[in-house]
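Notebook entry, structure prediction.
Reason for the run: the old model in the group folder had no record of what sequence produced it. Starting over properly, with the input documented here first.
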Amino acid sequence: MSFISNADHVALREGVYNNVHGNLNIVHNTFYGKKRHRELEIGDAPDLLPIMDPKRKRRRREKDLKDGIEVIQSQELKLTIEIGSGPGYFLHAGETRGRAVIVKVFNAGPTMREQLESTVALSKGLLHPNVLRIEGASSPESLSHFIVYESAHWKTAAGPLAAALKDDLTRSITLGFKMIAGLSSGMNHLSVQGVLLASLGAENFDIFLDINDRFLISINPHIAAEMDVGEDRRPEDNTTRSWDVFNVLCSKVSFISRHLDRMLNGCSFRF
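New structure, fully documented this time:
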């Protein structure tokens, strides 16, 4: 059955067709703008395919940072509050694409990009419930360099532990056991995954706590620190070192929490 025959300049929905001879059955919607015309001859219809706008291609999110980490643009981030700092970086709570995140912003300097890439190299392959997961990072061309992590509620265990010591002894004991279990599990994962811990100390780790009381380890390596599973290093050496770091981390967190507890109670305290 012919819907259109021997017609000229026929407008259907958003398409315009000229010099129609014979039968033309329209069975799909076209995607041409109202101001855009195209002449259609018999036999052309099967070849009509949507053409992606080159601008849309350029707007596609980059998925690679030489190591599979997604690139996140600075304009996609909203920083809400500073929550801590470490050697060469500051930590902020923030948001991106409607979800809460932690953002590590590196201080300006000649080694800031190298420090970022060293951190990503150590953390990108780690998948464990007690290791803070990287969600993305800035591009090499970015004016500011940062890493975006999954969200956690506190910077370190010291804050909630100090609050619990002041208000709820039972909770402080519960958090203490969760800290030991979480940190020991996370450090063991780092060891068996081949993270070289010989050059790392307690200062190379941040300990976070999420809203479910899950303790999370974040690594902040020195520039020279790298993943290494060389044949000349015995696995038990790295395991021993991981327990040494674990003990120092627990002592450090406990020390800071006691210090904060005394501050909360109005007592003076000397280091």
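Summary: Residues 1-60 form one domain.
The old model has been moved to the deprecated folder.
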